[in-house]
Specification:
Blueprint (H helix, E strand, L loop, with lengths): L4 H13 L6 H9 L20 E3 L3 E3 L2 H10 L7 E5 L5 H7 L4 E6 L2 H13 L5 E5 L12 E6 L8 H5 L1 E11 L5 E10 L2 E10 L9
The structure holds S-adenosylmethionine.
S-adenosylmethionine binds next to strand 2, helix 4 and strand 4.
Length: about 210
């Protein structure tokens, strides 16, 4: 059996910390989550490469650096509740679950949601709930969220996401047309007062139904 830990620590140091992500909770979480368990079996040896990788359903598991950048922009800390849109493999949900108390993650493709749910259970992430469905509507039943992270991009911010943010909460998502997306962080300052900040140019799969 291959020990992937050295490759994982190397990834955290070279691809993430050296590029400026300094959030210790995120660096620690990513040093622990076995990314090799979240990629297709034949791609395990590439699990710690500096790249997104294909998963089922023509989707992707995001590049490790982007997962770190988003989690750190989400300002995650113990006791918080997070909503993720686009479960995919479940990797980003596992990273966040090591930091916060509860992660609700929504995936529209039932096959991906089922696989991620079983994987997260097998790996002991009991504080993640995988919901099969359309994430554009968010999850009103569990709102408000301290952070909402979307791993799929759209031209507009779905209104439900803004309204389901706690006051002080952070929404991190790729915004803009395919091929010209910017990762943005939207912070809810007051009831109807939001501030938006651009973080980086990114390339994500589309948020289906996001507009
Ligand atoms: N966070 C994932 C991981 O760690 O593997 C990567 C997710 S992948 C980049 C984006 C995911 O968003 C895809 O699995 C896709 O099916 C999902 N998606 C796209 N539109 C969606 C929607 N409207 N609701 C829920 N999931 C959606």
């Amino acid at each position: 059996m291959i020990d992937y830990r050295p490759a994982r620590l190397n990834m955290v140091e070279r691809q993430i910390a050296r590029r400026g992500v300094s959030d210790l909770a995120v660096l620690e979480a990513m040093s622990e989550v076995p990314r090799e368990e979240f990629v297709p079996e034949n791609l395990r040896d590439y699990a710690y490469e500096d790249t997104a990788l294909p998963i089922d359903g023509y989707q992707t598991i995001s590049q490790p650096y982007i997962v770190a950048l988003m989690a750190s922009a989400g300002e995650l800390s113990p006791g918080q509740k997070v909503l993720e849109i686009g479960t995919g493999s479940g990797y980003a949900a596992a990273v966040m679950a090591r930091i916060v108390s509860r992660v609700v993650t929504i995936e529209r493709l039932a096959s991906l949601a089922d696989t991620a749910r079983m994987r997260l259970t097998r790996l002991g992430y009991g504080n993640v709930e995988v919901v099969t469905g359309d994430g554009v509507a968010g999850c009103e039943a569990e709102a408000p969220f301290d952070a909402i992270l979307s791993a799929a991009g759209s031209r507009r911010i779905p209104p439900a996401w803004k309204s389901q943010l706690a006051i002080g909460g952070r929404l991190v998502m790729p915004l803009g047309p395919l091929g010209d997306q910017i990762l943005v962080k939207v912070t809810r300052l007051k009831d109807d007062d939001y501030v938006e900040k651009a973080l980086a140019a990114v390339r994500f799969v589309p948020l289906i139904g996001g507009g």
